[in-house]
Structures are given as structure tokens and as C-alpha cells.
Amino acid sequence: MNANTTTPSAASAMATAERVLPQSAPAVALRDVRKVHGQGDAAVVALDGISVALSPGSFTAIMGPSGSGKSTFLHVAAGLDRPTSGTVTLGDTDLARLSERRLTILRRERIGFVFQAFNLMPSLTVTQNIALPLRLDGRRPRRSEVREVAARVGLEKRLRHRPSQLSGGQQQRVAIARALVTQPEVVFADEPTGALDTQTGRGVLALLREVVDGDGHTVVMVTHDPQAAAYADRVILLADGRLAGMLDAPSADQVAEQLAHLGS
Q1: Closest by alpha carbon to 193, among 218, 214, 167, 222?
Q2: In this predicted model, what pLDDT tens digit does every residue of 137-176 receive, in sequence order?
Q3: Per the CATH hierarchy, to which homologous superfamily does domain 55-68+99-262 belong?
Q4: Sheet holding 93-94, edge to edge
Q5: Are 82 and 157 in contact (CB under 8 A)?
């Protein structure tokens, strides 16, 4: 599969992003987003004028050197943190217009999260961990919907197990099932294979790929691993808080080359 590779300078990258915006409403869009931590002489610019749109049903990997703004990008895009300026939209919803309460409800109902450390409740079974977002939303989970999503990630025979009785890969699959049980519009994954061995990580990445191809979810993943990024439709490269380039249909070698160019 041939890749269309762009490596624009930081100054021209935003213009490139605007040219490739999809015609339909994006699943997630950042418009001239700036995020500054601290004030005065201690201020650190984590994101500096990011404009990008992510298509529904796409798999995007966010990459860049240490300190490039990857985690901040994910947190702002997912509504976990508010930008200093600029706008972030989920579908047709402007997150800046929401109160903290409404933003919490939106995250619970329309967004799924997968983290490197799994973040499972050790005292709960697989069934209870998967159902937790529904219970936090005040809904009584149906056994059938929990079983269905557990089967989707290959855990239908582990429903009564607790996290300590599972392998790392199985725990991450529980985390993915938990993220999918609310049928979110977007799943945000922060280094989802970072705590896994190579083979187990590939299984998790294949599952995320199937979440996009089979279920039509949008997945946004932060990763440092070029092999992981090769599962995505597009890689967005950040450097010093700015958009530094994009790779469409990326290969691991192309990603590694561009990361080396950025000085990672």
C-alpha cells in the first residue's frame, strides 16, 4: 500500500491540515488550539496553534519527540483539559460551551478511554469492570450487552475473573471493552501497548484496528512505537507543540524515519 507522505515545516503544517479537512463533520476537530501551562516566566506552551480534523471511523496515531505535546493533545481533544485558546469540537458539540458537569456527562456518554496502566478496579470482576461506565452514568447494565462486548474482545470465558487473574493483554482487552460498552463516538488510547510485550501488543492493536473497521468507531492513539503507529490510517506528528507533519497509510519504517528527522 503506497503512502502519501507530507513533512511540512512547522509554519506550513497548519495550512496542510486545513486542506485535508474532511467535507463531512469531523469526529474531533481542533481549531487554532493553544495550551499554556503555568504563568509568567514559568509558562510552558504545550500546544501552539494546532488545527486538525479527524474523520469519523478513522484510526489516528499521535506521535512526536518527548515534550512535543502528545499527551496534552489527547487530553484537550478528549475534554479532559480545556485549551487556553482555540476551539475543540466533538461532532457538532463545542466543548468550550459546556459546563464542567455537562462535559463530564459528555465524556461518560460519547467518549471511551484506554490507558497504558489499564486502570481496572482490582476488586471487581471482568463483568463489573466492563459495566462500570454504565453504572456511573446511572444505567443498569444488561447482562447481554456486557456479554456481547466481552465476546467482542475475546473475554466471554473470563467474565467472573478479577484483574489479578488475567494476563496484561487480557487486562487491556477488559479496558477496551469498558471503553466500548457505552458505544462511544471516539475512543482515546494513551500508549495502550506500552506495558505489553510485542506479541501481546500486536493483538491489542489488531483489536483497535477492528474497532475501527468492523464497528466504525473513531480511534485516536498516542504512541511512541512506529510499529504501533503503522496500524493507523494516519499519523500526526508534533514537535514543540506544533503540527510538524502527517503520514497517510504509514509504514513503520516511514514513521521511524520521520521521528528521527524530528529528533526523537
Answers
A1: 222
A2: 888 889 999 999 999 899 999 999 999 999 999 999 999 9
A3: P-loop containing nucleotide triphosphate hydrolases (3.40.50.300)
A4: 44-54, 28-37, 85-90, 93-94
A5: no
